[in-house]
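User: Sequence recovery, please. Input:
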């Protein structure tokens, strides 16, 4: 199986966790594959990710249809009390969990120590779709172990970092709400509890169907609150759903976990927009910039821009474009903005300006106004 869930302070869950020792053999999903086995799993994207059914909290049937980019819940029988544990956590992940490992070149069987410079470069993104009914949360589950793990490591003992993109129905995270913060261009309620390991949940105050962020962004906030340690090891990055009632139609349509080059400086939170700061880059070579809308809501949106070097290496880049009338930027991360009015100008940070030939990086931003579906950009 891919995952033992947190205890939810329920005795039956503890006995379930101790009793679940069989791990379904993973097989690659070349075409759509249906999985109904309780802990059935398969690999996608050439083995880089594992998709797991993980019906841990109910004896009722659950099935998922898996393709090479994610999965969709096609059957979700039964229901659980909304004051207790969910029925399951169907998910896609990179890394290892309970001996079920992907072939990810980002998170290996021994994890990535938070103090390792590689950790600061780990980025993840997900796109999801939701049904019109049901009670569920849509969330990342990112696991940390206190000591160096192995592929056979069972329950992680450090922390479970949850990032909720959406929730439907009268449900809430474990513990109690302790703060509200602005991270990764959005506002989040922070919840903390402990069920034998720390459970830290960031619940987005406005729902979204997609998200891109650096894992370090949220973990740094955890550490600042005393809920984590830089000596711990990241073991897996998972994205999926916790259904209590229903769940058919929940889907991950795209998922990635990547790592870039080592940063020369490591900001502890996403930088806010600084209109008066001028870029200090010395661009060389050519590059391209591609806009992607990752989420929208009434009066605002979130997007990212991929910057890719051409046939020559880059030593700094600047992306320019024109925003539609009525659209403005309210926050930018992984880039330094001198955007003014409708003129968009974003330059690299010190840690992502040097790109080898064909290599890429990205920056993100939150905008106000009507979300543009496309944006013409130049890069140099």
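Assistant: Recovered sequence (380 residues):
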């Amino acid at each position: 199986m891919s995952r033992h869930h947190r205890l939810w302070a329920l005795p039956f869950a503890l006995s379930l966790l101790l009793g679940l020792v069989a791990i379904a053999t993973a097989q690659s999903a070349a075409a759509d594959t249906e999985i109904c086995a309780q802990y059935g799993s398969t690999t996608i994207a050439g083995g880089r990710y594992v998709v797991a059914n993980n019906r841990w909290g109910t004896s009722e049937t659950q099935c998922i249809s898996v393709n090479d980019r994610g999965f969709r819940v096609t059957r979700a029988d039964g229901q659980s009390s909304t004051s207790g544990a969910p029925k399951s956590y169907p998910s896609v992940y990179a890394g290892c969990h309970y001996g079920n490992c992907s072939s990810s070149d980002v998170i290996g069987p021994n994890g990535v120590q938070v103090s390792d410079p590689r950790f600061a470069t780990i980025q993840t993104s997900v796109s999801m779709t939701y049904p019109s009914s049901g009670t569920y949360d849509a969330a990342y589950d990112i696991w940390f172990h206190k000591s160096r793990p192995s592929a056979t490591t069972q329950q992680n003992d450090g922390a479970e970092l949850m990032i909720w993109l959406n929730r439907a129905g009268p449900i809430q995270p474990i513990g109690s709400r302790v703060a509200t913060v602005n991270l990764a261009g959005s506002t989040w309620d922070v919840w903390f509890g402990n069920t034998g390991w720390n459970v830290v949940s960031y619940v987005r105050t406005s729902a979204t169907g997609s998200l891109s962020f650096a894992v370090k962004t949220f973990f740094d906030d955890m550490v600042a609150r005393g809920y984590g340690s830089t000596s711990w090891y990241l073991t897996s990055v998972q994205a999926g759903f916790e259904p209590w009632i229903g769940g058919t139609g929940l889907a991950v349509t795209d998922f990635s976990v990547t790592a870039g080059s080592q940063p020369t400086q490591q900001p502890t939170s996403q930088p806010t927009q600084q209109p008066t700061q001028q870029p200090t880059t010395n661009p060389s070579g050519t590059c391209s910039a591609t806009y992607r809308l990752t989420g929208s809501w009434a009066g605002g949106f979130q997007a990212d821009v991929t910057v890719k070097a051409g046939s020559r290496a880059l030593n700094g880049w600047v992306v320019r474009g024109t925003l539609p009338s009525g659209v403005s930027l309210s926050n930018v991360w992984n880039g330094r903005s001198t955007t003014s009015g409708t003129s968009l100008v974003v330059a690299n940070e010190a840690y992502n300006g040097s790109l080898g030939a064909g290599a890429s990086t990205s920056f993100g931003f939150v905008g106000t106004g009507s979300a543009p579906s496309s944006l013409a950009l130049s890069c140099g």
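The helical segments are 11-19, 215-224.
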